[in-house]
Amino acid sequence: MIRQQMYSYKTGIPQIDTATGGFEAGTNLLLLAPSLSFAEQFAYALTRPQAGEYAIMLSTNERASEVIDLVKSTGADKHFVGVIDAITKSSTPAVSDTERFMFVTNPTDLTGIGIKFSHMIETIFEGTFSGGQETGLFPPPIRFCINSVSTLLMYRKLEVLYQFLHVMTAKLKKVEGFGIYVLNNEAFDERTVSLIKQLMTIVIEIKVERTDNYFRVMGVPGVNADWHKFTISNGQVVLGL
Amino acid sequence: MISTGMYGIDDMLGGGIPVGSRVLYSLDPGVDGQLFMISTLYEALEQKKSCLVVIPHTTVEAFLHDVEQLRGHKIRPSEHAITFMDIADRERIQRQVSKTGSSLREWQERIKKLCTENNVDVIVGYFDIIYEDFGLEKGLSLLSPACFPTKATIIVEHLNLDGDAFLDSPVIKKSFDLILAVKSSFRPLPHFNYFTILYTSWSTQLRRSVPFLVKNGHIVPYIPKIVVTGPPNAGKSRFVLNATALGVSVDRAGTDGTSTTVAMDFGWLHWQDFDITLYGTPGQPRFDPMLPGILKNAMGVVLIVDATDPGQFPRAKQLYKTVAKMHVPVIVAANKKDLPGVIGEDEIRKGIGIGKNIPVFLISAQQKNDVRDVLEHLVDSITRFIC
Fold first, then answer.
1. pTM value?
2. Percent of chain B whose pLDDT exceeds 70
3. Domain B7-216: which CATH class?
4. ipTM of the assembly?
5. Cβ contact A96–B69 (<8 Å)
6. How many domains does chain A have?
7. Domain boundaries in chain B?
8. 3-class secondary structure per residue, chain B
9. Which residue in A has a C-alpha nearest to residue B131's C-alpha?
10. Among partner residues B31, B57, B162, which is closest to A108 by beta-carbon distance?
11. Fold annotation for B223-384
């Protein structure tokens, strides 16, 4: 089925989805968060593919098997999720790629990451990604998450990573996908955060006060930048009072 | 010469890479081009060359596994003359020295030592980490004769995040004998990768761009579309059928009792390490509205005329005008040279209205060798064509 209109990606957070109708295809979203703030779970909730969608996770922190467990905890169907794992191969060099699980030795290998990403996108477009369970939407809606940009920055220089992310965000726009990029704003200076922000269309910032977590959305017309208290339950973002 | 391991490319380079050359395989992000350097490495090892592989981004075990996955064959360090500098060496050097200058010296000394100890003929390395660690000029100094034996051939792969600015920089042009850029259309569908030979120091050939496929661990250059057109009864269907391993023609009986093509001829062949698809158009003017569609994305055109029938030339001229708008290489194949009454080349040129820049081949489409001569020349023109 060929899409007649620009696709909208729902976040699963009613307050955002109601105000925006979902994020436009081609949106790149930066998730800025300190450590221990449920940022990862927040990112997984945003990346969870809805019916008819696909998701690709670039994981620099967890192995592919752990990623899939986390994805399943959000209620997503694992057949529509691909993982580019930048962890496992360093300890298990002989691990082999499959359609949905691909491996690079470590986060240094931007060549490998780029190639595996292109392969997965091609497979999704060719309709062979989910082993016959394809939904047939065209172009296929694809969510892509880098968890995390912080780790990539530990392996490569800011300037190099900026150029790399520039290419990735542009590709996401071309395929009408939705990109989610996790960055620890406590670990890097203002210049770094500001440079990465330049590549994004939307920023969601998370903060922790005492025992409570809050997020706010910046860059979306019609959505104010107020802080919202939230928890994560069954892989979903739930707003508190 | 050292083979690139990609025979179609060897031909384009005049037989391969001259010993002692410095080669840059520049990969755009996301382009499946890792097999270029791996193919060259694999070929060098098969030729019993002693190789040093510099892989500062990965481990030896992971690299060997990647090569096996990509190429379908193992490199066995016990059987091949191969030495490595891997991520562990990079980390060791980083630990030993903190200042960039001394770190660079450490790299130089380590490489020099390995080259001398192992009598290295070919060095294969991933440049982007070195580029990042030391910058362009200092990074390139690692490729200088101060580090490597003069006769060593150096093959470098680089993830090019800087685009054409990097490839056009004078220091890059000065530092390499062959620059081959691997790029992608990055249209999800139809998706295609292509390579461009940007520069060779040993020849003055024009830059060439050719799409490629990865098949069974090999890079296969391919030409997605060559169109064969011409007036009715010029011999287009015969040409396509005799050119290709698999050919189909959709013919119906014409008004004069002979068969005529009413849809198109289609054929596929593997020629000179290229995969080529041929599309033959119907010759009747009533099918002209189809022509722009068939010609779209064509990389070359064969215009066939009956060399014994000057009455066809006005129609051929009309077709040539349409084809010329595509700005792709065109060859005129003057068919039926084995029949009486063949007209001379000058008259054919005059009749069709073409200059000396368009080659004219006198052929018999019945003769496979004649047909292949035309294709060989066209493939050569396509791969030389400036994109």
1. 0.81
2. 89
3. alpha beta
4. 0.91
5. yes
6. 1
7. 7-216, 223-384
8. CECCCCHHHHHHCCCCECCCCEEEEEECCCCCCHHHHHHHHHHHHHCCCCEEEEECCCCHHHHHHHHHHHHCCCCCCCCCCEEEEEHHHHHHHHHHCCCHHHHHHHHHHHHHHHHHHHCCCEEEEECHHHHHHHCHHHHHHCCCCCCCCCCCEEEEEEECCCCHHHHHCHHHHHHCCEEEEEEECCCCCCCCEEEEEEEECCCCCCCEEEEEEEECCEEEEEEEEEEEECCCCCCHHHHHHHHCCEEEEEEEECCCCCEEEEEEEEEEEEECCEEEEEEECCCCHHHHHHHHHHHCCCCEEEEEEECCCHHHHHHHHHHHHHHHCCCCCEEEEEECCCCCCCCCHHHHHHHHCCCCCCCEEECCCCCHHHHHHHHHHHHHHHHHCCC
9. A160
10. B57
11. Rossmann fold (3.40.50)
